[in-house]
Amino acid sequence: MNNIILIGFMGCGKTSVGIRLSYLLKQAMTDTDRMIEKLSSMTVSEIFDKYGEEEFRSLETDCLRKLLQEPDNQIISVGGGLPMRSENRELLKQLGKVVYLRVTAPTVCERLSEDMSRPLLQGSNPEEKIRELLEKRSPIYESAADMVIDVDGKDFDEILDEIVKKMEEIKE
Questions:
Q1: Residue 26 in 3-state DSSP?
Q2: Is 32 known to sit in a ligand binding site?
Q3: DSSP of 68-112, one letter per residue?
Q4: Which of 8, 60, 97, 161 is the most buried (most CB within 10 A)?
Q5: Is 38 annotated to bind ligand?
Q6: Is 99 in contact with 21 (CB distance < 8 Å)?
Q7: pLDDT at position 92 over 90
Q8: Does 15 count as an annotated binding residue?
Q9: pLDDT higher for 6 or 171?
Q10: Which residues form a coiled coil (predicted)?
């Protein structure tokens, strides 16, 4: 399939980059978290609160299966934890080219300092939680990715240019 899938840690810019990339490439954009919210008529936080993380992760897998049935040439932004399941990594590869937007903990802390809606950042020391999760998830993101884009200190135009350039290199 000819989709571009954006993966990475929360706050790395998957949705924002996805929206801009969809305009640039004139392709539809799908955000799996928004898709799950629409299908369940609940927010991600409500799903976590009511059913727990494991149920939410199952909904993510279902979402990927649905996307495999849809037309391709989409930009797909996925939740930060979605690639943690090996089944999901296999589905991502079937869906298209996977782009890992790599971010560092200080950047995440800065970007999310005011956002208390993130279920995995609830608790007393969100910065420590971010570092722990990034350390655990980064190798998995890298193994799932066809390309890695470092986003720290870059504006959207720089990130988009890098993605487009690397996508062209892959096609050659």
A1: coil
A2: no
A3: HTS-SSEEEE--TTGGGSHHHHHHHHHHEEEEEEE--HHHHHHHH
A4: 8
A5: no
A6: no
A7: yes
A8: yes
A9: 6
A10: none
